[in-house]
């Protein structure tokens, strides 16, 4: 289901209901500031209140240390992987892949340029199995996506700035929020269309072992 966001939900706007949603995980990536975009859209900036989320997961391509410092200030736990435009190698500040445990879920993160063809469902499934995760988060395509395959969830937050992409001509600025409670995770996809923020919601239940 998709609905128009008239006001930011309480768990983003600084209300008291955040704890009712479980652990909140902000998922974003591909900001490309300042090379492909000047800033995160103001509508999004007003929604991202520090310390209302427990985790930030970033798919990379932050481009600058300042951008990393900004997202690190949003939550006590910040998980970042290197994008294809970020520094790589032994001296790189971020790993190429990362696996984190949040609640009952193992969450794997890679930028997505390692998935060939980019965004391909079979290649994504291979990466999910290699990392042995319940949820695989990838970026790179600058197009958000949430889908379930064989009891596993695949999430792409898109580009939070709407930065242009050679493979995605019309990029819609977007990010994802996960609300994890026990064996359930609720996903909210936020998209900026003109001056309006639209939100779509879906739920995923971890299969019984």
Summary of the model, kept short:
The chain has helices at 10-13, 42-47, 65-72, 121-131; strands at residues 2-5, 23-28, 55-58, 77-80, 97-102, 105-110, 135-137, 145-149, 152-156, 174-181, 184-193, 196-205. With 209 residues, it is an alpha/beta fold. The radius of gyration is 16 Å and the shape is globular.
Could you please describe the fold and organization of this structure?
This protein has 209 residues and is an alpha/beta fold. It contains 4 helices and 12 strands, in the order E-H-E-H-E-H-E-E-E-H-E-E-E-E-E-E. The chain has helices at residues 10-13, 42-47, 65-72, 121-131, and strands at 2-5, 23-28, 55-58, 77-80, 97-102, 105-110, 135-137, 145-149, 152-156, 174-181, 184-193, 196-205. It is globular. Residues 1-8 have low confidence and may be disordered.
Protein topology:
Blueprint: E1 2-5, H1 10-13, E2 23-28, H2 42-47, E3 55-58, H3 65-72, E4 77-80, E5 97-102, E6 105-110, H4 121-131, E7 135-137, E8 145-149, E9 152-156, E10 174-181, E11 184-193, E12 196-205
Parallel strand pairs: 2-3, 3-4, 6-7, 7-9
Antiparallel strand pairs: 1-12, 2-10, 5-6, 8-9, 10-11, 11-12
C-alpha Rg, in Å?
16 Å
Distance between the amino and carboxyl termini: 29 Å
H/E series: EHEHEHEEEHEEEEEE
Structural class: alpha/beta
Which percent range describes the beta-strand content?
Answer: 25-35%
What is the tally of helical segments? 4
Which geometry do the CA atoms define?
globular
Provide the spatial order of strands within the biggest beta sheet. Answer: 1-12-11-10-2-3-4
Largest sheet: 7 strands, mixed
Average residue pLDDT: 86
Number of DSSP strand runs:
12
Residues in helix, %: 10-25%
